[in-house]
Amino acid sequence: MSSVIKKFFIASMFMWVAPIAILYGFNHNLFPGSTQLSSHSITLLSGFLAVISVNVVIAFYICMAMKEPSDKHEPDPAFLANAKASLRQNRPNEDEDSSQTRKKEE
């Protein structure tokens, strides 16, 4: 479970860092050739590349999630037993509640 959280955290960090780095790089002329473009072109290009970078990170995260083995994700048997027992306990109460509401309506 911790590996899934770690992957999610890393992907989230890249979703913030990549577009900010691209915008910073274009606004401070860190990329070669960006000084030859007009300010409108720099704004459009940097915004477009920032959006593309977020989509690339999302696609990469989806690919990593698809590669996770599905057979190792099995629920805890004790948890399932407790959940089934709690459902069995709640069912008679629900029947009584619904019969009481029917009597009130009549």
pLDDT < 50 stretches: none
Cα(first) to Cα(last) distance is 52 Å
Structural classification? mainly alpha
Overall average pLDDT: 83
Shape: rod-shaped
* Count of folded domains: 2
How many helices? 3
Can you walk through the features of this model?
The chain is mostly helical and 106 residues long. It has 2 domains: 1-74; 75-106. The protein is built from 3 helices and no strands. The chain has helices at 2-27, 39-66, 77-105. Helix 1 runs antiparallel to helix 2 (39-66). The longest helix is centred in the last third of the chain and has 29 residues, at 77-105. It starts with a helix and ends with a helix. The mean pLDDT is 83.
